Predict the 3D structure of the following.
Amino acid sequence: MYDKSGFLLAFIFLCSMYVEHKGARIFYEVEGTGNALILIHGFLENSTMWKSVIPSLSIRNKVISIDLLGHGKSDCLGYVHSMELFSETIDAVLKHLKIKKCTLIGHSLGGYVALAFADKNPAKVKGLCLLNSTSNEDSEDRKDIRTRANKMVQINFESMVKISISNLFYQENVALFTSEIEILKKEALTTSLQGYMAAQEGMKIRPNRNHILTNGTFKKILIIGENDPVLDAKISSEEAQKTNTEFVVFSGGHMSYIENKLELITTLKQFIN
């Protein structure tokens, strides 16, 4: 039981778990002790995206990483995964772990979910980090893109997913992160077709939540990539100024946890501690 292999199996058993919400199984992992830190991945990602930052963050914190509905090892729950529904699963995990207050870090889609959670549970939020994310709603152009993507993905799921992942990086960085991109594509393809479409529909209908940042009494930070192909850096800067939110800009694209990993870890540790 205490040999190297046995210890690893025991660790996985103890720290990788499920909680049920409305009949759907939600997968989560826990590492470390201390203040609760909730990591919420983005679209086509899952909790494995955080593996390079968890060791640093779990030294002084209890880090909980969660697979959102339809992603990773979590089930789907219908054909529209709204941000509110996603946030309910986060709350289900917190209640199961008896966590009353936490700091949330959400990447892209995960940021939208964190905002929905804060909207409904402001007393439970100690801090909120939007990583390559926004409190703005989708533009009409973005909604059209999501609608078209949901049609195209039914024809060729694999090609759509692979193209989507590559397009999230600053193009000058693509050649630098070839192996990481291949791993991301492999993980993205574990997302079910239903999970893909349900998340797109949910993001399309999400409301503007600038007021959560403006009125929130918790710590808040907006981290973006200067060359993000999804989010306009100038618009993000205006959003941060309007909502009185700390603003940090990295040199890369939409995948700061890969393109600017060391800077991100330093920034997150300063924000959390």
In short: The longest helix spans residues 83-96.
